[in-house]
Specification:
Length: about 400
């Protein structure tokens, strides 16, 4: 047993603020009570502000982000539909796998893990698709496995340039509520997130933003679905109720989480994530380590995937951190296993946590045999928080 705090520096589930945790400690309540809607309807309005949509619908399904992926696909596509996807990390990889399991005809563009969505290649493929055979275009906004953020607006732009009619699907599981996400402005038709990342809650809610275009398409889409059917959900939600038992404690957690986000102000939340992420990046650089993200413009403000020196096994760094230092870092997923560890810096996160994460990462790295100068990462992040953060400077391209 370790004494003191257990440090959770993984990119989800994220740390749950005490007020959110307390808000979920409620007696079970009647989900058909006449006043239940007074509690639920503002939650939908709050989520719309988070997604930045006024035209779209938002829905919450019991489940996680993966369930919301499935809901997005099965409600709007037909078996055998051609869709355009790309892989640049484990989460985009898994979404492709799901699309194939559900019987879609996937055109998959593979790019190195560390690159972002290949929007230029998307533009070429969509431009050549004169008969609009491609029914949907997929983007993983923030690839949590690689610590890469992608340009969703650029994908919308290439779609518009060739007047392509496909639906735009965006995985925002590790970006929504932490980095800027503009559902209406970017013309996102299916926006997907979960409760346990930027929303600072336990896992349990799969959350979707659905455009009116996607709602219209869902009326004739023939893929099978039952539990995740949009129409049932949205019709009953309109009066503030659910087609089946909602996880009411989570809804109370969501109320508290939305209150926190609104009190801080979404734009301030994004600025805080940018500042903390940059501090972590400065720290990583001072340790002499590299990120998986190939270019500064791709570096995620919610998670940093950090390459360990070649003589070190990242699994050993993770083990030492967990067993000896009471700290969890994110592991390297799939092909990055052993080569990478990740620091999640999203949700309820602050300077003290960023410095602790860097300090413990240095310690675990050194204990695992890496030649990392102890204290260098912490010092670099501190200097940035003391001075650089005010000017909003980002690490320059090498
Ligand atoms: C966490 C994550 C998922 C998976 O979500 P679950 O809630 O674990 O099902 C999907 N995509 C991205 C980008 C994620 O970060």
């Amino acid at each position: 047993m370790q004494s003191g705090y257990t440090h959770l520096f993984i990119p989800g589930p994220t740390n749950v603020p005490e007020v959110v945790r307390q808000a979920m400690n409620v007696p079970q309540q009647d989900m058909r009570a006449p006043d239940f809607a007074e509690f639920t309807l503002p939650l939908f309005e709050g989520l719309k502000r988070v997604f930045k949509t006024t035209n779209g619908e938002v829905m919450m399904f019991p489940g996680s982000g993966t369930g919301a992926w499935e809901a997005a696909i099965t409600n709007t596509l037909n078996p055998g539909d051609k869709v355009l996807m790309s892989r640049y990390g484990q989460f985009s990889h898994l979404w492709v796998k799901m699309a194939e399991m559900l019987g879609l005809d996937v055109i998959c563009v593979d790019v190195p893990w560390g690159a972002g969505v290949p929007w230029k290649e998307y533009g070429r493929i969509l431009g050549a698709d004169k008969d609009d055979e491609i029914k949907a275009v997929f983007v993983t906004h923030n690839e949590t496995a690689a610590g890469v953020v992608s340009d969703v607006a650029a994908v919308r732009r290439v779609m518009d340039e060739c007047f392509h009619d496909a639906l735009l699907f965006v995985d925002g599981v590790s970006s929504v509520a932490s980095v800027d996400f503009r559902m209406d402005e970017w013309g996102v038709d299916l926006a997907v997130t979960g409760s346990q990342k930027g929303l600072m809650m336990p896992a349990g809610l799969g959350i979707l933003g659905v455009s009116q275009k996607a709602m219209a398409v869902s009326k004739t889409a023939r893929m099978r679905r039952a539990y995740f059917d949009f129409e049932d959900m949205v019709n009953i939600n309109r009066s503030g109720y659910f087609p089946y038992t909602p996880p009411t404690p989570l809804l109370h957690g969501l109320r508290a989480s939305l209150d926190l986000l609104e009190r801080e102000g979404l734009e301030n939340v994004f600025a805080r994530h940018a500042r903390l992420a940059e501090g972590v990046r400065r720290g990583v650089k001072a340790m002499g380590l590299d990120l998986v993200a190939e270019h500064p413009s791709l570096m995620s403000d919610t998670v940093s995937a950090i390459r360990v020196p070649p003589e070190v096994d990242a699994r050993e760094v993770l083990r030492i951190a967990y067993e000896e230092l009471n700290a969890s870092f994110g592991s390297g997923l799939a092909r990055l296993a052993g080569k990478v560890f990740r620091i999640g810096h999203l949700g309820s996160f602050n300077e003290g946590m960023a410095l602790t994460a860097l300090g413990l990462a240095e310690l675990a790295l050194v204990k695992a045999g890496a030649k990392v100068p102890l204290g260098a990462g912490v010092a670099a992040a501190s200097s940035y928080f003391a001075e650089g953060a005010q000017s909003g400077l980002r690490l320059a391209a090498e």
